[in-house]
Amino acid sequence: MTTEPIDLRAVLSTFDELWSPRIAARINDYDVRVTHVKGSYIWHVHDTTDEFFLVLEGELSIGLRDPHERVVSLPAGSVFVVPKGIYHRPFSDGGAQIVVIEPAGIPTTGDSHDPLPDHIKTHTGIDL
Ligand code: NI
Protein backbone atom coordinates (compact mmCIF):
# COMPACT_ATOMS: atom_id res chain seq x y z
CA MET A 1 0.00 0.00 0.00
CA THR A 2 1.20 3.47 -0.85
CA THR A 3 1.60 6.28 1.63
CA GLU A 4 0.64 8.80 -1.06
CA PRO A 5 -2.86 10.19 -1.66
CA ILE A 6 -5.02 8.08 -3.96
CA ASP A 7 -7.28 9.62 -6.59
CA LEU A 8 -10.28 7.32 -6.73
CA ARG A 9 -11.36 8.69 -10.12
CA ALA A 10 -7.92 7.87 -11.48
CA VAL A 11 -8.19 4.34 -10.08
CA LEU A 12 -11.62 3.93 -11.67
CA SER A 13 -10.22 5.09 -15.02
CA THR A 14 -7.78 2.15 -15.08
CA PHE A 15 -10.52 -0.46 -15.59
CA ASP A 16 -14.05 -0.77 -16.87
CA GLU A 17 -15.20 -4.16 -15.64
CA LEU A 18 -18.48 -4.03 -13.75
CA TRP A 19 -18.95 -5.35 -10.21
CA SER A 20 -15.19 -5.98 -9.95
CA PRO A 21 -13.76 -3.98 -7.04
CA ARG A 22 -10.20 -2.69 -6.87
CA ILE A 23 -8.63 -2.26 -3.44
CA ALA A 24 -7.76 1.44 -3.28
CA ALA A 25 -6.70 1.55 0.36
CA ARG A 26 -6.65 -0.40 3.60
CA ILE A 27 -7.58 0.82 7.05
CA ASN A 28 -6.67 -1.60 9.82
CA ASP A 29 -8.20 -4.88 8.64
CA TYR A 30 -10.63 -3.27 6.22
CA ASP A 31 -10.45 -2.79 2.46
CA VAL A 32 -11.61 0.37 0.75
CA ARG A 33 -12.74 -0.97 -2.62
CA VAL A 34 -13.97 0.96 -5.66
CA THR A 35 -15.89 -0.33 -8.63
CA HIS A 36 -18.08 0.51 -11.56
CA VAL A 37 -21.56 -0.99 -11.40
CA LYS A 38 -24.41 -1.21 -13.88
CA GLY A 39 -27.40 -3.49 -14.17
CA SER A 40 -28.08 -5.95 -11.40
CA TYR A 41 -25.87 -7.81 -8.98
CA ILE A 42 -27.07 -11.03 -7.36
CA TRP A 43 -28.86 -11.60 -4.08
CA HIS A 44 -26.24 -12.53 -1.49
CA VAL A 45 -25.52 -12.34 2.22
CA HIS A 46 -22.45 -11.74 4.39
CA ASP A 47 -22.88 -13.81 7.53
CA THR A 48 -20.21 -12.15 9.66
CA THR A 49 -19.81 -8.55 8.56
CA ASP A 50 -21.68 -5.35 7.78
CA GLU A 51 -20.95 -3.79 4.37
CA PHE A 52 -20.52 -0.05 3.84
CA PHE A 53 -21.47 1.63 0.54
CA LEU A 54 -20.63 5.17 -0.63
CA VAL A 55 -21.88 6.38 -4.02
CA LEU A 56 -19.38 8.59 -5.87
CA GLU A 57 -21.23 9.01 -9.19
CA GLY A 58 -24.63 7.98 -10.47
CA GLU A 59 -27.25 6.29 -8.35
CA LEU A 60 -27.15 2.91 -6.65
CA SER A 61 -30.16 1.01 -5.40
CA ILE A 62 -29.98 -1.88 -2.97
CA GLY A 63 -32.71 -4.43 -2.52
CA LEU A 64 -32.88 -5.73 1.05
CA ARG A 65 -34.69 -8.60 2.71
CA ASP A 66 -34.83 -7.44 6.31
CA PRO A 67 -37.01 -9.48 6.42
CA HIS A 68 -39.59 -7.90 4.12
CA GLU A 69 -38.22 -6.90 0.78
CA ARG A 70 -37.56 -3.20 0.29
CA VAL A 71 -35.27 -1.03 -1.83
CA VAL A 72 -33.08 1.85 -0.72
CA SER A 73 -31.97 4.39 -3.34
CA LEU A 74 -28.62 6.08 -2.94
CA PRO A 75 -27.84 9.13 -5.06
CA ALA A 76 -24.24 10.30 -5.38
CA GLY A 77 -22.92 11.45 -2.03
CA SER A 78 -24.97 8.93 -0.04
CA VAL A 79 -23.75 6.22 2.27
CA PHE A 80 -25.55 3.11 3.49
CA VAL A 81 -24.58 0.14 5.64
CA VAL A 82 -26.05 -3.29 4.93
CA PRO A 83 -26.11 -5.15 8.26
CA LYS A 84 -24.55 -8.58 8.44
CA GLY A 85 -26.96 -11.42 7.87
CA ILE A 86 -29.24 -9.39 5.59
CA TYR A 87 -29.68 -10.58 2.02
CA HIS A 88 -29.08 -7.73 -0.42
CA ARG A 89 -28.96 -7.09 -4.16
CA PRO A 90 -27.28 -3.91 -5.39
CA PHE A 91 -28.39 -2.62 -8.78
CA SER A 92 -28.07 0.48 -10.91
CA ASP A 93 -30.05 1.02 -14.09
CA GLY A 94 -28.00 4.02 -15.22
CA GLY A 95 -24.65 2.93 -13.84
CA ALA A 96 -22.68 4.21 -10.86
CA GLN A 97 -19.26 4.36 -9.31
CA ILE A 98 -19.14 3.24 -5.70
CA VAL A 99 -16.86 2.71 -2.71
CA VAL A 100 -17.38 -0.43 -0.63
CA ILE A 101 -15.71 -0.89 2.76
CA GLU A 102 -15.58 -4.32 4.33
CA PRO A 103 -13.03 -6.55 6.05
CA ALA A 104 -10.11 -7.68 3.88
CA GLY A 105 -10.64 -11.15 2.45
CA ILE A 106 -14.42 -10.96 2.40
CA PRO A 107 -15.67 -12.36 -0.93
CA THR A 108 -17.71 -10.00 -3.10
CA THR A 109 -20.50 -12.52 -3.51
CA GLY A 110 -20.88 -13.18 0.21
CA ASP A 111 -21.24 -16.46 2.07
CA SER A 112 -24.38 -17.51 0.21
CA HIS A 113 -25.65 -16.22 -3.12
CA ASP A 114 -27.91 -16.85 -6.08
CA PRO A 115 -26.38 -18.57 -9.12
CA LEU A 116 -23.74 -16.34 -10.73
CA PRO A 117 -24.28 -15.02 -14.26
CA ASP A 118 -21.20 -14.90 -16.51
CA HIS A 119 -20.42 -11.25 -15.80
CA ILE A 120 -20.14 -11.71 -12.03
CA LYS A 121 -17.09 -13.39 -10.54
CA THR A 122 -16.35 -14.11 -6.91
CA HIS A 123 -13.17 -12.51 -5.63
CA THR A 124 -11.91 -10.54 -2.66
CA GLY A 125 -10.96 -7.35 -4.46
CA ILE A 126 -8.08 -6.78 -6.86
CA ASP A 127 -4.95 -4.92 -5.71
CA LEU A 128 -3.97 -1.84 -7.71
NI1 NI B 1 -22.60 -7.58 -0.29
Helices and strands, with pairings:
Blueprint: H1 8-12, E1 22-27, E2 30-40, E3 44-45, E4 51-65, E5 69-75, E6 79-82, E7 87-103, E8 112-113, E9 126-127
Parallel strand pairs: 1-9
Antiparallel strand pairs: 1-2, 2-7, 3-8, 4-5, 4-6, 4-7
This protein binds nickel (II) ion.
Features:
128 residues; mainly beta; seven-stranded mixed β-sheet; globular; binds nickel (II) ion
Give your account of this protein's structure.
The protein is about 5% helix and about 50% strand. It starts with 7 loop residues before the first helix and ends with a strand. The model has no long low-confidence stretch (mean pLDDT about 95). With about 130 residues, it is mainly beta. The protein has one helix at about 10; strands spanning about 20-25, 30-40, 45, 50-65, 70-75, 80, 85-105, 110-115, 125. The structure holds nickel (II) ion (NI). Nickel (II) ion binds next to loops.
Write a brief caption for the model:
The protein has 128 residues and is mostly beta strands. 4% of the residues lie in helices and 52% in strands.
Q: Rounded to an integer, what's the Rg over CA atoms?
A: 14 Å
Helix content: under 10%
Q: Report low-confidence residues grouped into runs of 5 or more.
A: none
Bound molecules: nickel (II) ion
Output mean pLDDT: 95
Structural class: mainly beta
Biggest sheet features: 7 strands, mixed
**Outline:** globular
Strands, total number: 9
Strand percentage lies at: over 45%
Instruction: Give the termini separation.
Output: 9 Å
Number of alpha- plus pi-helical segments: 1
Order of helices and strands: HEEEEEEEEE
